[in-house]
Design brief:
The protein is an alpha+beta fold. The chain has 4 domains: 317 residues, 2-Layer Sandwich (BirA Bifunctional Protein, domain 2), CATH 3.30.930; 61 residues, Herpes Virus-1 (2-Layer Sandwich), CATH 3.30.40.230; 76 residues, Signal recognition particle alu RNA binding heterodimer, srp9/1; 95 residues, Anticodon-binding domain (Rossmann fold), CATH 3.40.50. It contains 18 helices and 28 strands. A 9-stranded mixed beta sheet has the order 3-10-11-21-16-15-14-12-13. A 5-stranded mixed beta sheet has the order 25-24-26-27-28, with helices on both faces.
């Protein structure tokens, strides 16, 4: 069920007050779409990223890369981002404020699905009587605004470049190197955790929509003839999830049923949907507020054949936090065309196959002198042509290194050949789980947030999972007395050396210190009192139940470890 309407403001206030995240450059008025992670937020972020690595690097055996955030313009021209990575925007002629056209329409006509084209969006805004929400001024006609940040690489030539809007492209560019790293065997996966940059038109809702954000993406390269099956699908086939298909009714289905009914395209995409669900719940997302929604055809990204979004229910509605897409061979094919490099894979047959083929054969003796440095690319382009498409023609047009070139018939021949093939060349398809780390962190915070009254005052608790909490155990002296502080400091040091995330302080009453730890999500507190000095025992308190137990000092580290792992409870 939805949270109360003011949960967003309360969670943002708590996050700022307790050091989870803060508006960037606030002393200069701040900049929309930029946030700093404070001490607790940075640790929570590290925990989420560490959990993600445990799933995708340790669990799946994928290779992690770390690539630059800036790439030359040619990369994004090939990928389609220069042409297609944009939102429709309208500007106020009076105050100059800019607005996303689809957000304007959703506010004015909640039941109307925002159209994608400029013309239909303009007509829809006119029908809705759209005006500037800030000053009431007239709005411009909507127009496409590319969301990438542009820059220049180096002085002098001013080579144009862009900050990456996703981390994926580097993994496509490195496919040949990765293919050799994995001993030329598919399937394999590459992952990257890093920053993405999108010049959002009107970012809002805290860290949900940022201009600089954190992503964790996996690119899983598969044989297109084998992606219908996944070797580990049986591990998730029985999982029941709330699914919202692009067509058809919403409902709970097992992933096995979703594949067999054709609701999901194949086992590979369903497997990573199941893996995503497990990760999100383990990170702290409430399973009752989690669903997977399939993109409708007119919503699909330009590279995707199928896509399912993991959405969490927040106080302002369902919000995408992960996308699981079948990108087919779009990216590798695009970069092969633009770069002239071979980004294919080879599948070996069990038994060699002899076939008769009619092929287009380049005449290298003519190509070399005529096309010089382009001869090799032209030859590859000719070899890729179907023989029937060139027979009887005086010339053909091919694309080489991004340019269209005319090739006369003396540069090629059409001939029959008998070949014994040991395998087949193909362009791999890509399954991509793409995680928005910041959105996941906010979802975890809001789903963990609760409030009550205590002694007539508001009392806030973050019920973070112990493995994820930025502070796992706090160690307090009951009073700010030297003899108690010394013991508390020693326990705190030993717990830290054992690998736990700890905190210790002596100011204020013990009740206020417990309240602060409840508010930042620390699941356990250890309290040193005067009985500790007599019998060597301490009090261990559970955040969620407020129950306490006395334990000997020698037991504390082991007990805390069991409590965090969930194999022990305080009864």
């Amino acid at each position: 069920m939805p949270e109360p309407p003011d949960t967003l403001s309360k969670v943002l206030a708590l996050a700022k007050r307790r050091g989870f995240f803060w508006p960037s450059c606030e002393i200069y008025g701040g900049v929309a779409g930029f946030y700093d992670y404070g001490p607790l937020g940075a640790q929570l972020k590290a925990s989420v990223e560490g959990l993600w690595r445990s799933y995708y690097v340790a669990g799946e055996g994928f290779a992690e890369l770390s690539a630059p955030a800036i790439s030359p313009e040619a990369v994004f021209r090939a990928s389609g981002h220069l042409e297609k990575f944009s939102d429709l925007m309208a500007e106020c002629g009076k105050c100059g404020e800019a607005f996303r056209a689809d957000h304007l329409l959703r506010e004015l006509a909640p039941g109307e699905e925002p159209p994608a084209s400029v013309e239909t969006m303009a007509a829809a805004l006119r029908r809705a009587g759209a005006r500037c929400p800030k000053c009431g001024g007239d709005l411009s006609e909507p127009f496409a605004f590319n969301l990438m940040f542009r820059t220049n690489i180096g002085p002098g030539t001013r080579r144009p470049g862009y900050l990456r809007p996703e981390t994926a492209q580097a993994m496509f560019l490195d496919f040949g190197l990765l293919y050799r790293h994995f001993r030329e065997k598919l399937p394999f996966g590459a992952v990257q955790i890093g920053r993405g940059f999108r010049n959002e038109i009107a970012p809002r809702q805290g860290i949900i929509r940022l201009r600089e954000f954190n992503m964790a993406e996996a690119e899983v390269f598969v044989d297109p003839e084998r992606k219908a099956r996944h070797p580990r699908f049986s591990e998730v086939a029985g999982m029941r999830l709330r699914l919202v298909p692009g067509e058809g009714p919403e409902g709970d289905l097992s992933l096995g049923e979703a594949v067999s009914r054709g609701t999901m395209a194949h086992e590979s995409i369903a497997y990573f949907v199941g893996l995503t669900a497990r990760f999100l719940v383990e990170a702290g997302v409430d399973p009752a507020r989690l669903r997977f929604r399939q993109h409708a055809q007119d919503e699909m990204a330009h590279y995707a054949a199928d896509c399912w979004d993991a959405e969490t229910l927040l106080s302002f509605g369902w919000t995408e936090v992960v996308g699981v897409a079948d990108r087919t061979c779009y990216d590798l094919e695009a970069h092969m065309r633009a770069s002239g490099q071979d980004l294919r894979a080879f599948a070996r047959y069990e038994t060699p196959v002899t076939v008769e083929r009619t092929v287009v054969a380049p005449v290298h003796a003519v190509l070399g002198p005529r096309f010089k440095k382009d001869a090799r690319a032209v030859a590859r382009a000719l070899e890729a042509l179907e023989a029937g498409a060139v027979e009887g023609r005086d010339s053909v047009e091919v694309e080489a290194d991004g340019r269209k070139l005319k090739v006369e018939k003396d540069c090629f021949t059409v001939k029959k050949t008998t070949e014994t093939s040991s395998g087949r060349w193909f362009t791999p398809h890509v399954i991509e789980p793409s995680y928005g780390i910041d959105r996941i962190i906010y979802s975890v915070l809001e789903h963990a947030y609760s409030e009550t009254k205590k002694e007539g005052e508001d009392y806030f608790v973050l019920r973070l999972r112990p493995m994820m909490a930025p502070i796992q155990v706090a160690v307090f002296p009951l009073l700010n007395k030297d003899e108690l502080v010394a013991v508390a400091d020693d326990i705190n040091r030993r717990l830290g050396e054992a690998g736990f995330r700890t905190h210790s302080e002596a100011a204020d009453s013990i009740g206020r210190r417990y309240a602060r730890m409840d508010e930042v999500g620390a699941p356990f507190c250890v309290t040193v009192d005067f009985d500790t000095l007599k019998d060597g025992t301490v009090t261990v308190r559970d955040r969620d139940t407020t129950r306490q137990v006395r334990l000997a000092l020698a037991e504390v580290a082991g007990a805390v470890g069991e409590l965090i792992e969930g194999t022990r409870r305080i009864d």
